[in-house]
Amino acid sequence: MSYLVLARKSRPQTFAEVVGQKPVVRTLQNALSQNRVPHALIFSGVRGTGKTTLARIMAKALNCEQGPAAEPCNACRSCREITDGISIDLQEVDGASNRGIQEIRELKEKIRFMPTSSRFKIIIIDEVHMLTTEAFNALLKTLEEPPAHVYFMFATTELHKVPVTILSRCQRYELKRLGHRELAAHFSRLAELEGVRIEPEAVEMIVREAGGSVRDGLSLLDQVFSYCGREVRTAEVVEVLGLVSHRVVGDLGVALLRGDLEAIYTLLDEIYRHGFDGRRLSNDLLAWFRALVVCKVSKNPGQVLEATEDELALLMQTADAHSLETLTAMFQLLLDGLEKAAFSQQPRLALELAFIRAVQFRDVTPVADLIARFDRMLADTPLDTLPAAVPASPPLRPQPAATDPPVRPASPATSRTVPEPPSPPLARPESALTSAPEPKKDPTGAGTVRPVIPDPKPAMAAATPGAPPSEPEAAPPPPAAEPPAPAAPTVAPTAAPAEVPKKRIRQHWDAFVKYVRERQPWVAASLQMADSVDRKGEELVIRFADSADCSLLKQRNNIDALTEFVLDFFQENLRIRFEVPGSNACALDPGNGLAPLQERRALANDPLVLTALDVFTGQVGEIRVGPRYRTSTPAPIRPSGDDEQGVAEE
User: Fold this and answer.
1) pTM of the full predicted structure?
2) Which domains does the chain carry?
């Protein structure tokens, strides 16, 4: 008799011999014991996990002369015939080669007759997803109401390709990949039965290559037995299967983390001398770095990783020596670089370049640490050096004339001007606030004299609770007709509202899109398709890659609404312009978007607003023209009789 490979010789003949799949085995045995076996079963899962094996064991259990029983006896005539593959009442169909409607019609004709010598007629269709649509349709009615003496059992590796009409008529059993420890114990037991001594590390390598498939692992084990004879060593497994030892992969990963390019090149040369495949090396290295990340974030990585105790200890030691940011950054760089190397014309050169880039970025400093360092640097900076190191930002609006008082405007004509804001304090807000007086005016009218920063200690003492307010040094005296109030020096800097900083287009674009989404979600969705945004003079330029993305936005009503959103959010008189490379399809009508701009200018120049600013010595903070801020009062500033009015905030 010809030699039987291990995959056939060690095929389980009872439920007790099945490796893993305990939930499925228990369900099938209970169904046999309670006489609740469905007329159609479908087994799904990856290759080599026992789908066809379980179908045959179920066939033996159903037709066993001692049953139906939870375990076949394997001694009666029916069990022996099924084991030997000569049973007339068990018909196995290969769905890949018998996939047409004619084969299914012949099958339907055969199942009309009663079993010849067994209790039931069993139909097993392997790779059932390969059947044609017509074949599936021909099987539907028979599968839903089969004869009482027929059982259908299907097996497939691609369950998603089976029509739902078939799935709804079957009881499904999904077989999972076998665990690392289960496969290792099974292979070690088989090696012992074959009289072969095998090293544990060699078993681990075979299990890792099997990928959870029993049949794949048995094929590799059979090949190793043929090469090594009665004693299997790890080095021989590496040689015959073309593998790289997990130790070599670990050494390469440690060299990458250390930035040791010399060791990296030495290991790569050793690996390629043995004829190792670059794609396999990439997969092993990525799996090793994934294991490092798991060890860093998991409290019990042994439950997640399939590794021996020695390998797990080494992984834990390496993970503890590096931060999570460094490990994830290295993982990401290698993932991108090794993926490109897999499709390169020079895979080794691409692999070496990926390693060089990973070494250059091996040390990653978290952003929070950088900010903390910057804060400590600012805290150590002396206060009297701040104006020289960080000059005061220029005023956001034109300054009043040299003859005007520095704080309060003298006439309605200058009521909308604001004083120069003080320099933003960087280290000590309470000291900077009291030690930064208003710029002093030159009595000769030559211009503004830079203030002298006084010692911070008296200023801080004056700012303490209970201390009388101190006058700014060399402050100009108030007019004689209006005597100064006792608290005027401290109230004067806060009399006018602080200037609101302008929002930048690129920096605040995401916030603007969120602002628009709260009002018109579809407009925000269209804005998110923009390639880039920029400001050119008084125009907001929005660029799209395809003119279809801005076809709706360019309509008059929509562009008016979008202009209102831009004016309300950025508080600047900006016009919108769309750009599409090589196309004028999104060019706007010059008249579109003018109505919101005219309304905003009219609100700013409204006599009532100007009078209120003059009376209360205030300034215009924001002007809202969007529909969310309108009332039903008729707007006198609109020439078109619109019944909506904007609101100007002081």
Assistant:
1) 0.52
2) 6-174 (3.40.50.300), 178-243 (1.10.8.60), 245-381 (1.20.272.10), 509-629 (3.30.300)
